[in-house]
Every structure is written in C-alpha cells, then in structure tokens.
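Following up on my earlier thread - several people asked me to post the actual chain instead of describing it. Fair enough. Here it is, all 273 residues.
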Amino acid sequence: MFFMKKLMIRTNVMYRMRRYIDMEKKAVKGFFLLFIVLGLTGCSKEASNSVGNTGFETSALPTEQESGFDSVKELNEDAFAWLYIPKTEINYPILQNAEGDDMFYTDHNEFKEPDANGAIYIEAANLNNMCDFNEVIHGASPADGTRFAGINNFLDKKFFDEHEYAYVYMQDNSLTYYIIAAYTRDNTRLLEQYDFSYASGCSEFIDELYSKAGMNGIIREGCESGLSPEHFLITLTTDSVTEPGKQTVVVGCLVGDAAGKIDREIDYGNEDQ
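Reply from S.P.:
Thanks for posting it. Predicted structure:
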C-alpha cells in the first residue's frame, strides 16, 4: 500500500525569473512539499535526498546508468539535462532550442541533425533549471519504439505499477520524480492552455489531472489528492497511439533534489490584471 504525507516545511524561496510577464511580483513562500513514503518497504527503494530534507536517503545516480550527457553537451549546447526512466527505453538528453524555436526538435535529433523522430525537448516558455511548477517535456512516438513511444505503456495498470520513478540528471544536480498519474487528453499545448506562472494556472492543471486521470487514466494509489501549486512537476507528453488527435501524458512529482537547488516564487495574484 502506497500512501502520501504532506509535511509542513519552511523553505528559502528564491526569486523566479519570468520570461513573458513584466510585472511586480508578490512574493509568497511555499510551505508545503510532497513527501511520499513507501508503506511496506520504507524510503530506501530507489529514493534520493528529498527537497526540504524530508527523510529520503541520499543516493547517487543509478550505477547501471551512464547518461552520456557530457558527450551530447559537447556536440549540442541546447542539451541541459538527461531523462532516464529505469526498465524502459526512455534514456535521452533533454533539449531547449536556444533561439526559441519550439518546433526545431520535432524534426531534428539531439545532434541537430534532420530526423523525423525528433528529440526530447521543452519549449521556450519553460525554464531549463527545472524550477517551473510544471516542466512539460515533449517527444514523438515513432513506430520503432524509440523516443517517447514508451510513454503510452504507462496507460497499462501493470506497467504503471512497475515503474514508479523518473530521474532528471543535470550537470550540478540529480532530481527524482515519483510518477503519480498517466492519462490521455486533447492534443493541445499545456503551456498555452495553462499559465503556470500563477498559482491559479497551476491549480487548473491539478484539477485536470485528477479529473482526467480518474476517468480515462491511472492515478497511483495514495496520490488521489494533495497536489498544490507549491509542488514541482514534470509532464511527459507524446502522441496517443490508440486515440488519434489525443496525447498521452505521464506526470511525476519531485521528491528528490540532491543539490537542494529546486525552488521558486509562487504568485497568487490575479493573472487577468
């Protein structure tokens, strides 16, 4: 049985850069961070040092994992992190086009070579320090099973139950995400639909997650509630292989921040003003 606790933690909140909004911020400190505990086996199962020192064991990168990040970085300055999901084919650099072209990596690979399968990437509207509320990571689902084709497997309950964690490695940090939901949604851009620079936009996405994952997807047992704008998510997106015109999303919540660098300011202001 898995269950979720919320611990009240006082954090030092850093100033968060904004890319598209020029306004005076109202600084609000976040006090609630997700603390996920494994009820039967304890915190030792693939756990890492969690945000706010909530009791997870410190862990190095998985010993069997060699990301190749340095070699990719030497060839492409757009690479800023590496995504790895154990026991899957998902083991790729994450890129962000330096010129702000969100379509570039839909038909170019991690070496900037033309490639119909594209690469794994985030849009310009996301920060590449992984400090946004929701880092939306895109990838195609080619027939050969590479890139993000495996994301669709998370809609199978047995597969979902057997794959709990996703890791994001950076040059100066190692992040652990607990995979909490998988579902299908309309093929719209999340960063256009929701303004994650405001708490209200974060809450709207949380509402979508609980609603849609409850209807046509999967929510991990014990994670049916408790998310708030104070958390840090990754959403992996790809084309649905069973529902044309839809996308499959897999959502993970940050539970491990080895370097203690993931933080942000949360704006509870009115986004319409």
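DSSP finds four helices and eleven strands in the chain. That should answer part of your original question.
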